[in-house]
Structure formats: structure tokens, C-alpha cells
Design goal:
266 residues, alpha+beta, Jelly Rolls, 5 helices, 11 strands, 21% strand, binds 2-oxoglutaric acid, Phytanoyl-CoA dioxygenase (PhyH)
Length: 266
């Protein structure tokens, strides 16, 4: 059953995340995007354009977290997935926004590791806004995380700390650390917020949304197959570029072919 718009928006405002209980992106769009993802990982670019310069390049170590920036530039089927109108509709219900624009996209492919061997790629606890000084601090920014594979509890799902978004930025987060326990011990949550981890378990085409200040991270994948997703960074009409900062992640913002507006009821 669909929750009412008020309930969805209230849940997100209170807890800092929302996990849709039904797949949002149609299966054919997800399948095509999965093929596109594998092609981009091989360095095959159907659009003729490369993704943005990325930490992981075709041919790199497949036991590492594969993170490719702006893969939508390189593949039209990925673009169709990240720009899907259903994503815009739900993002508007979650945030109450009048306009939603994609401003950055990451392809995330986390390989499965043998649970008998310690270690494997993980994503350290962090708040997205700590990496976004290109926007003014009060800008309404959030992330839609679209599952392309079945994200089971064993697949190293993203997890959110409910209520952690309430007091803005705090110290200690690090996306690039694999040691989630160490980060947990050093991070001081806003007063009155207890440490609780809510995993984002999603079927292919499922989506979760999180606020720019929500603490989140993900552990290792022991599911036996790769965890595949796109993290889609979004802005609403209540967002402003920081005039004092160089534009790197925001350099394509005026090009709506690269950074599509996926909802507009202004
Ligand atoms: O994929 C993950 O586990 C983390 C992704 C993330 O940090 C994000 O979408 O903001």
C-alpha cells in the first residue's frame, strides 16, 4: 500500500532517509542500465563520451570498490535510468520540492568477498554534505540510491543512522575508510540521537533517499554476487551554488542533457 505523501515526507524529515517499499524503476530500464554499467566498466562507451575522470578505471583491480563518476555521460541506458520520471515523482513526494535536478551521479559496484577472509571493500560512515562545499550550507541536497542488483542483508547494503541529519555537519565521517567500527567510536552524534543502523534492503529498481546530513555507510558484501547501484545526487529549487568555491562536481549544472531536471512543477 502506498503511504500518503504527508507520511512519506514526515518520515523523511524526522529520520533523514526514506526507503521505498516497492521497486520504483521499471525492470526493462534496470536491465538496460545494468548492461550499460558492465559496458562502462569495460571502457565501452555507447554515447561516444567518456565518464568523468574516476578513481576506478577499466582494467583496475576488480576486488576493489568500483566507483565511476558521471557514467550517464557514457551510456544512454544509464542516463534513462538516472533520469527516470518515477524517480523525480517520488523524490518530490519525499522532499516536498517543486523542482528536482540531478547534479552528479556515481556508479558503485561492490564485489562480493569470501566471509572467511577478513576485509573487502566497504564505505565508511559519512555525511554527503561534507564533500559538497560547492553548495551553500543551507542548500537542499539529497541522494537517491538506485539498486540495480538484489541488495540483500548479505550484500553490504547501505545503512542509515536515523535522526543523524538534525544538527548539520559533525566531524569524523570518512567515505573512504573501510573501518566502520573505528569511525563509529570516534563520531559524536547530535544530542539525543542514539546509534541505530537501518539497512536499505532493496530489490533491483528499488530506491532509497537520504538527506545531505544523514550519517550512512556500508559493510562488506558476502552475498556471492556484486552489489550494483547508482548514487544520484539531487538538488531542489532551494539550493544555491557557493560563489566562493571552484565548480568541479557542479560544472555541468547548466547543461540539462548531462544534469537532467527530473521533476518541475514550478
Ligand atoms: O554505496 C554505498 O554503500 C554508499 C553510497 C553513498 O555513500 C551515497 O550514496 O551517498
Amino acid at each position: 500500500m502506498l503511504k500518503s505523501d504527508t507520511n512519506v515526507a514526515e518520515f523523511y524529515a524526522q529520520r533523514g532517509y526514506y526507503i521505498a517499499d516497492q521497486p520504483v524503476i521499471p525492470a526493462d530500464t534496470v536491465h538496460a542500465a545494468e548492461h550499460g554499467m558492465e559496458a562502462v566498466r569495460r571502457g565501452e562507451y555507447a554515447s561516444g563520451n567518456e565518464p568523468f575522470e574516476s578513481p576506478w578505471k577499466p582494467g583496475d583491480d576488480d576486488t576493489k570498490l568500483c566507483k565511476i563518476e558521471m557514467p550517464n555521460l557514457a551510456d544512454p541506458d544509464i542516463h534513462a535510468c538516472i533520469a527516470h520520471p518515477a524517480l523525480g515523482e517520488l523524490a518530490a513526494r519525499v522532499t516536498g520540492a517543486k523542482m528536482i535536478q540531478v547534479w552528479w551521479v556515481q556508479l558503485l559496484h561492490k564485489p562480493s568477498v569470501d566471509p572467511a577472509n577478513a576485509g573487502g571493500p566497504a564505505v565508511g560512515w559519512h555525511q554527503d554534505a561534507q564533500y559538497w562545499p560547492e553548495w551553500t550550507p543551507d542548500s537542499e541536497l539529497f541522494t537517491a540510491w538506485v539498486a540495480i542488483s538484489d541488495v540483500t542483508p548479505q550484500a553490504g547494503p547501505m545503512a542509515f543512522v536515523p535522526g543523524s541529519h538534525r544538527d548539520g555537519l559533525f566531524a569524523g565521517g570518512d567515505f573512504f575508510s573501510n573501518d566502520l567500527d573505528k569511525l563509529k567510536n570516534s563520531i559524536q552524534l547530535p544530542q539525543g540521537i542514539a546509534w541505530e543502523e537501518v539497512p536499505s534492503i532493496l530489490k533491483p529498481g528499488g530506491v532509497s533517499f537520504h538527506h545531505r546530513h544523514t550519517l550512512h555507510g556500508s559493510g562488506i558484501n558476502t552475498s556471492g554476487s556484486p552489489r550494483k547501484s547508482f548514487a544520484i545526487h539531487l538538488r531542489t529549487e532551494k539550493s544555491t551554488l557557493n560563489p566562493d568555491h571552484e565548480r568541479i562536481l557542479t560544472q555541468f549544472i547548466d547543461d540539462h542533457d548531462k544534469c537532467p531536471v527530473i521533476y518541475d512543477k514550478r
